[in-house]
Structure formats: structure tokens, C-alpha cells
Amino acid sequence: MIMSRYVILRHELSDNTGRGLHWDLMLEAEGVLRTWALAEEPRQEATIEAVQLLDHRVAYLEYEGDLSGGRGRVSRWDAGDYAMREQDENCMVIDLQGTKFSCTITAVRQSGGKEWRVTIDKPR
Fold first, then answer.
1. Of the residues 27, 56, 69, 113, which has the fewest C-beta atoms closer than 10 A?
2. For the segment 59-75, what is each residue's pLDDT rounded down to a tens digit?
3. pLDDT tens digits for 51-61?
4. Which ranges in 9-120 belong to alpha helices (H)?
């Protein structure tokens, strides 16, 4: 399997977007970071609601600090490599190997929109 990089950022918002504190799961793919905002801190054997966001710049693989435009602050929660085991437009199965978090994630799109259900399991 081909490994690519990922990062999970703890994102504290300083405005009234309604999203509040969340964790950004960012997967490097084709020169960008595919990004999902997780509603809760990732943890083993959990199912977490997520919203797919616009792709982000790969600079966020290394960035921590304040975001421009009053969009809050990010800090690295985890980072490492991932392998995509399965993927289609409505489902992904991903193996993460991070510095503090190793798991298999199954992400399923809900009703064809931007909402996803992310299930985190022990590595396969």
C-alpha cells in the first residue's frame, strides 16, 4: 500500500461560525489536503459526526498557530502516514499510523452530502 501524510489539527474558533471547537482530519492527496471537521476529539472505538470542508493547502501538515481572518487557532493533535484501503465517492477505509494515534477509520457519506459518519477502530 502507498502511504501518504495526514494531520489532525485541534481547531479553536474565535468567531461565531457555529462549529465551535473541532478537530480537522486532513489527508494529503493530489497536492492538497482533503479535510473533514470532526465534531469530537478522535478516540479509539468511537463514531463521530464530520463535515467535509474545502480542500486545504499542504502547508497545514506543518502549521500550528493563529489563522488569518479571525478564524481561530490550530495546534497539531497528531500526524503521520495513512494508507487508503478502499475508496469510492461515499465510503473510505483508511489506516492511520501517527505519533500517538494508530487506527482504521471508516468514513461513510450521509445522504450524498457533506456530512459523514466516521468510525474509528483498532488497526486491522
1. 69
2. 999 999 998 887 889 99
3. 999 999 999 99
4. none
